[in-house]
Amino acid sequence: MKALEIKDLSYHKNLKTILERVNLTLEAGKIVALVGANGAGKTSLMRVIAGLAKQYKGGVEVCGEADEDRRKQYIAMTDSLSAFRDSRKIKDVADFYRLVYPDFDDKQFADILEFMNLNEDERLGSLSKGMKEKLIIALVFSRKAKLYLLDEPFSGVDAMSRKKIIKSMLLWKPEEATLVISDHVLDEIAPVIDEVVLIKKHSVLEQRSAEEIRAEHESIEEWYEGFYEGEE
Amino acid sequence: MKFKDNLPIYLQIEDYIYLQIAQGKLQAGEKLPSVRALALELTVNANTVQRALREMTAKGYIFTKRGEGNFVTTDEGHLEEMKSKLLKQELAAFVSRMEKLGVERESLTGLLASYLDDTREE
Predict the structure, then answer these.
(1) What are the sequence ranges of the domains in chain A?
(2) With A24 labelled, which of A111, A232, B20, B118 sits at a CA distance of 20 to 30 A?
(3) Mean pLDDT for each 10-residue chunk of chain A (232 residues)?
(4) A192 to chain B: which residues are within 8 Å by CB?
(5) What mean pLDDT value characterizes chain B?
(6) How far is B74 from chain A (nearest CA, A)?
(7) Contact assignment for B8 to A215 by CB distance below 8 Å
(8) Which residues contact A225 (CB under 8 A, 6 or more apart)?
(9) How many domains does chain B contain in total?
(10) What's the pLDDT band for B120 if we cut at 50, 70, 90?
(11) Spatial distance between the Cα atoms of A101 and B98, rounded to a whole number of angstroms
(12) Looking at this predicted complex, what is its ipTM?
């Protein structure tokens, strides 16, 4: 069963090439790291998959569904929460989610908040970067999706919070759902991923099984850095 | 538990379970934690735990009861085998470290015997 199938995807914005001839297939149930330098196109790729960026060419199917509006029901993507004012409480954000997403599960949200040591009465403005990221993860996993897209969930997050976020992924990802995590470093997520997809030069340069890389006695980080040697 | 990053994790999970069994933390015939519980405990992917358990099942070290979960074998021969696998790995690591220090394989037993002699408790 395929969670995602992208065929010959190209995406241009203001005459600039963002993505070029991307082909990518992800199986259901996998945890996948989407890596690449800043500006390589990771976020754009996620936005195209999620149906947020529309002016693209090529095919994108999520769980066999190509129609943008209909494939949205299968996808939960992290939201930076930048549309919410600092004075808003966590529970206000949850109210919004409940309204917009019919698959939002209150019980699950309460459970994840508790796991993350967050209180629904806290205001967004009082949250540290790590706490805010935990909230974003709690919101995304409170939805019952087939494909979860986490856009750089670890940037600016301290080590303890990163561990907590990784554990929450293992706890709350539905078994048959696919999880895509974008990042430009791979340190802590390496042991939890099935596959790594490398974006370079506006396209998918490599897609490898994590265990396969390690079987060649190479760490995933070494493998990844190998693609950027001599470019510093 | 910290995993080596340049060795397949499913192999390291197998070793981890062998160790639990060798140390008596998991007894012969005892039920293993669920795949999800192991994945959380070790902070690894559930698919990787699944693979480790599949490999161990194929070797006869654990067995599955339908609807109940995975259990440690009660077969003495297999239990012995797991332990000797771990011992062999420890010895291989020891020998390779000694070789890096310039110790010849031939002088290892002598060195070890005199060390054990020196540190013997009365």
Answers:
(1) 2-228
(2) A232
(3) 95 92 96 92 94 92 92 93 95 96 96 97 95 96 97 90 94 95 86 95 95 94 90 71
(4) 43-45
(5) 92
(6) 30
(7) yes
(8) none
(9) 1
(10) confident
(11) 62
(12) 0.85
Which residue, A162, A18, A2, is CA-closest to A10?
Answer: A18
Q: Up-side HSE of residue A199: CA atoms within 13 Å toward CB? A: 28
Angle, in degrees to the nearest 10, between helices B35-42 and B9-22: 100
- Residue carrying the six token digits 């909230």: A135
> Count of CB atoms within 10 A of residue A84's CB?
17
State the pLDDT at residue B122. 60
Please tell us whether the domain made up of A2-228 is placed in CATH 2.40.50.320: no
CB nearest B6 (choices: A166, A194, A214): A214
Burial status of residue B46 (CB atoms within 10 A of its CB: 0-12, 13-18, 19 or more): buried
Phi, psi of A223 (to 5 degrees): -60, -45
Domain carrying residue B31: 1-122
Residues of chain A contacting residue B8, judged by C-beta atoms under 8 Å apart: 211, 214-215
pLDDT for residue A99? 95
Q: Are A47 and A85 in contact (CB under 8 A)?
A: no
CATH of the domain at B29: 1.10.10.10
